[in-house]
Amino acid sequence: MTRGFPPPLSVAPMMDRTDTHFRWVLRQITGHTLLYTEMVTTGALLRGPRDRLLEYEPEEHPIAIQLGGDDPGALAECAAIAEEAGFDEVNLNVGCPSNRVQSGSFGAALMARPAHVATCVAAMRAACAIPVTVKHRIGIDDMDDYEHMRRFVDIVADAGCDRFTVHARKAWLQGLSPKQNRTIPPLRHDEVWRLKRQRPQLSVEINGGITSLDEAARHLRHVDAVMIGRAAWDDPWMLHDADARFFEPAAGTAVTREEVVRRAAARAAARLADGRSDRLGPMARPLLNLFAGRPGARRWRRFLSEHAFQPGADAQVLLDALTVMNATSRRESA
Ligand SMILES: Cc1cc2nc3c(=O)[nH]c(=O)nc-3n(C[C@H](O)[C@H](O)[C@H](O)COP(=O)(O)O)c2cc1C
User: Fold this and answer.
1) What does pTM read for this prediction?
2) Which one of 10, 31, 57, 231 has the fewest CB atoms closer than 10 angstroms to its CB?
3) Which residue segment(s) compose the domain that 219 sits in?
């Protein structure tokens, strides 16, 4: 199955996870899956360490940047910056329920202000030529019926939104932590399917609780695309069939997990040598779950946890962890 934009599969924006190091690891596993940055607030991008916030490696394409903000002018400026920096898509966060985000009245709180979101999207569209997309919830608080979501989508679609990614559960803005808001409100996948049925001309991506490519394939019978979040962190290798199943085989992806590690070690050595990285830890962290479910996985994780985060740790630690894991799994299977 081959499809163009929007790609049928993506890995979700996740704060403190989908940094350049995790995205690079994912890209060794799947050549075409769309990868998202962590959310970057407009304030940080306009006034903070811009180069660091925009950092990615050329092979991370296709890559989308997610913005957090509610000021149309600032969002437009950031969309132009994102395009200039080479991102393939710019996404607006209308789903994050954290207190910090609400106090800026953006994130999920924007679900209550569809006309304002439309203004933001229109401003972003006018400022750049790359797709402008929105990631949102089914609803918030007591504003959570299907009709409310459809109205939100209709209003924002009129502003030219290129895709709607729906996290298929509502968010409680008061009383639940962001983590609880990703587990306690029940999943309502059927309402996302219904949205696509009723608005077939819109591009609709489903997100929330999807943990395998088989499940993704089932959803793709009803919607245009599937976004996977936590499952990709918990077991990145789950994506290794994604190209063959949903796109076309990609040149250059790793054939085994060991190969991913050897490439990661070469990358880490180069970055530590030329000063782009000053510690191994952030580059090792997205590898912790690479062997999830395989014999020796616990030994791998433990070795990395004990050694990769030490001051002065170098890339050899990754290769040593492979050796130790393989010795353990040989002993276990003997
Ligand atoms: C650690 C973590 C950080 C997250 N950060 C963001 C974020 O920055 N922006 C966003 O829109 N969603 C964020 N999310 C929500 C995910 O993008 C996704 O919508 C959610 O985890 C549900 O998908 P899943 O069940 O496949 O994980 C985050 C989720 C996690 C677990």
Assistant:
1) 0.96
2) 57
3) 9-246
Q: Residues 94-126: pLDDT tens digits?
A: 998 876 665 567 898 999 999 999 999 999 999
How would you classify residue 136: left for phi > 0, otherwise alpha for psi between -120 and 50, otherwise beta?
beta
List, for residues 190-203, the tens digit of each pLDDT value: 999 999 999 999 99
pLDDT at position 194, please? 98
Q: Does the residue 196 lie in any domain?
A: yes
Give the domain-ending residue among 202, 220, 246.
246
Strand-pair category, 132-137 with 9-11? unpaired
Tell whether 4 is covered by a domain: no
State the Rg of the chain over Cα. 20
Give per-residue pLDDT as tens, 74-85.
Answer: 999 999 999 999
Q: What is the DSSP code (8-state) at residue 205?
A: E
The number of C-alpha atoms within 13 Å of 33 and in the hemisphere containing its C-beta is: 33
Beta bridge partners of 36: 64
Each residue's pLDDT tens digit, 318-330: 999 999 999 887 7
Structural domain includes residue 180: yes
254 Cβ contact partners less than 8 Å away, ≥ 6 residues apart: 28, 29, 260, 263
Tell me, yes or no, if 96 is annotated catalytic. Answer: yes
CATH of the domain at 63: 3.20.20.70
Residues with CB under 6 Å of ligand 1 are 12-17, 38-39, 66, 93, 95-96, 135, 167, 182, 207-210, 228-231
pLDDT at 1: 31
Closest ligand 1 atom to residue 95 Cα is 11
Handedness of CA 136, 289, 17, 96 (dihedral sign): positive
> If you measure from the C-alpha of residue 8 to the centroid of ligand 1, how many angstroms do you get, rounded to a whole number?
18
Residues 319 and 230 in one domain: no
Regarding whether 222 and 329 lie in a shared domain, the answer is no
Q: Which atom of ligand 1 has the smallest separation from the CA of 12? A: 17
Count of domains forming the chain: 2
Is residue 134 over pLDDT 60? yes
